[in-house]
Amino acid sequence: MLGRIERRYRLPEGYFKAKLPHPSRSASGFNLSGIDPAERRRMAWHLPEDFNSLSFQKREEIVEWVRRVVISGSTDYRQFQAAAVRQRYAIRFPGVSYGGQAPQNGKIAVPVDDEQGWIEDPDLLSGVIDAPPALAMEMADLVRFKTSALTSIGFQRNGIWAEDTASQKIEHLGLMFGALAASKQGEVSGYGVPVRQLTFGLLLFPGIWDWYLQWRESRRGFYTTWEVDMLRIALAITKQDTGWLRQHPELLQRVQPISGLISQSEIDYARDDWHGACADFHKHASHRVKEIQRIARVHRDPFEPIMPVLESASPVGEYRKITEEILRLMPDEGRYPRPAAEAVRSFLMLRLGLHLGLRQKNLRQLMLCPRGQTPRSERILEKMKRGEIRWSDTLGGWEVLIPAIAFKNAHSSFFGDKPFRLVLPDLLDLYKYIDAYVETHRAVLLRTASDPGTFFVKTVKTTSTEAAYDITSFYEAWRLIIQRYGIYNPYTGRGAIKGLLPHGPHNVRDVLATHILKQTGSYEQASYAIQDTADMVAKHYGRFLPQDKAALAARILNQVWEAA
């Protein structure tokens, strides 16, 4: 109707629409026959308003583009992930902690953007079956051994697992046992070992590991560092003096011969000389690690979704365009209070991520102390293993304080047992939006739900009454922000960056480290931005520096000529 009025009075196209506040929601009534309602809802935001008036071929082209680029992300790994996730075979350990996550509907949801790339297997998202009681008890003993504050009398260990590490190891070992138990004739093509025969004693035998490594290679087509990490679990549990498996020879009692994998003679040898068998396997696994490291390939390049940002002269400046796009499409608070609150939350997620460079966990668990209230003491935060954003009257700004123990690399030389403390800069209306979020928008998101105390809270709905983000929902929230505001859509004109793909919150650390590398050439300064060491930065981000070294040197040398 507005278009008709514009044509009647010869006004520019879009004249009235430009004067309307953006509702921050998609149009409705699209002709998307053959597409289920769930996918239709995800797709609607990314379709042009004149979608129904376009030709059939054009509509097909747009739908294909949205599915490939926006919804799934068009990387080889995403395509592999979509295919592999349909296969169900992993073993679940319901009596053992999964890092605070309770499996839902037989599934454990795990994101795929960890900073070191260890969560790079879509099988972690597969359906699972419960472990038999004996195997579950063995897993519980291993987790207790590696996570308890004090080692049990008579045992030795080298290092402990943090909560997230323990969750990772449980899941990865569950995949291995699940592959062994899966049917040979099924889609998974496992080995068909009866579930009742599964025991950690099997992990002492080279045949088991060689089959599993080759099975993984056949599924993916090549070896990756994932297999190396699995072998390192085997090395750790069979290590002399401190290996958990090495200190539990009784686990051999449940081991039975498996045709093609374990012979009776191998079991007899292990029974006669347990420590000798452990030493032999440890040597075998060490050789396998070296062999796989030589030929391992990268399947999931963590930088691929944000490559247009990292390749720009100013990665932070490029990524900042997403926050500007959020403000450009900000809905009117009076007419659309909840969409406005969600937009402000999205804006602050990205802004705080860019200023703080925190890992997902630390950003997600950041507590809030509003103005006028007494902030939590450092001791309380250490006990909670969380940080806090609070108003500092002394410093006149919003301060973020996070105890060192809350970080994954708490004992890194970066911290020196001192907390992370930073006053956020009041740049480009950051304080204005923080104050508005704390005073107004956060309550709109919470509605009547109990307040978890964290700075970022979910939108509470009738189907989702839990306000606190978990590792999966926070990742999905960030990914949704990128899909809506980050990826440039040539069909709607919305989106900030051409060539960007969906990604999670960890990639903002890549943006910060790469930006400082490009500007200074210093691994040490880049490490300060992401609370890590120069060695780690050199290892993960050095690939972005070579092409900028000459430019950095030229910038310094050119000053001589400019002065003349």
From TrEMBL:
| Listed InterPro entries | Integrase-like_cat_sf
Q: Name one GO biological process term.
A: DNA recombination
One annotated GO molecular function: DNA binding
Protein name per Swiss-Prot or TrEMBL: Uncharacterized protein
